[in-house]
Design brief:
Bound molecules: fe (ii) ion
Number of strands: 9
Helix content: 40-55%
Distance between the termini: 38 Å
Strand order of the largest sheet: 3-5-6-7-8-9
CATH topology: TIM Barrel
């Protein structure tokens, strides 16, 4: 699997503080089937993005990790005015591997006006916005129509794996499922911050998706689309996943012939 959103660089944001903690996260990711992980430190008002420090930590972590797994460059970009200008001016600096897919995070307090124009400008600059964990943002939970329209405009959506299991509350879990059922989700990523609580494990999400929607769907969201993002190729929009019927529903079908 490929994890396109993980805070694994030490000492830069609210992720790991020490290199040893970063390595513990990488070991856990590798053990649970992740082959590639994108280091996405915050670029936010609280944690400004420092390109030189990011490059240095990335090099150190790659050297320490050896061939445990491949580590790619990325950024978790908060959508505010300066960041938007900066990303449009330097699309290669902030997108995944410099290939165009850009993680964008909405604030919990406000959805900027004219998002369609902003996303259109990003598309023109060669960027594909990846809207991160909309299911965890209570403003976006009320904005299904907008999310649909942004996706039809060429944006992509990324859910946090742990949302599927209720880590961010019932509303987030229900909205995540609703987005999946509406074929609006392109990626599932860990958004890991540590090796204990917000971990980089994706295997549980893979199994959950495969059980509920089928293995092909799990592969698309956790392997194929994230791999395409690494190399800047087009992602596929999921094709109407059918919710698997449970055993009791199947027996009801057999009994009633429906
Ligand atoms: Fe994040």
């Amino acid at each position: 699997m490929v994890d396109i959103h993980a805070h694994i660089l030490p000492g830069l944001d609210d992720g790991p503080r020490e290199l040893a903690q970063s390595l513990a996260m990488l070991r856990l990711a590798a053990q649970s089937g992740t082959t590639d992980i994108v280091a996405t430190p915050h670029a936010s008002l609280k944690y400004p993005y420092r390109p030189a420090a990011v490059a240095q930590r990335l090099a150190e972590l790659r050297a320490a990790a050896g061939d445990l797994l491949r580590i790619h460059a990325g950024c978790d970009l908060q959508l505010h005015y300066e960041n938007i200008r900066e990303a449009l001016a330097h699309p290669e600096r902030y997108s995944i591997n410099g290939k165009g897919y850009l993680l964008v995070e909405f604030s919990d307090l406000i959805v900027p006006r004219h998002m369609e124009e902003i996303f259109a400008e990003m598309r023109q600059a060669g960027l594909t916005p990846v809207i991160t964990h909309p299911e965890r943002n209570w403003l976006l939970q009320q904005r299904l129509r907008d999310l649909e329209s942004w996706v039809s405009q060429g944006c992509t959506l990324q859910l946090t794996a742990q949302s599927l299991f209720g880590r961010f509350g019932r509303e987030a879990r229900m909205f995540a499922i609703q987005l999946l059922e509406r074929n609006l989700v392109h990626f599932i990523a860990s958004d890991a911050h540590d090796a204990q609580d917000r971990t980089p494990r994706l295997d549980e999400a893979w199994r959950w998706l495969a059980r509920r929607f089928g293995a092909e769907y799990a592969r698309l969201l956790l392997e194929d689309n994230p791999k395409a993002a690494l190399i800047g190729e087009g992602v596929r929009t999921p094709a109407a996943p059918q919710k698997r019927r449970r055993f009791w529903q199947l027996s009801f079908w057999k009994r009633t012939g429906r």
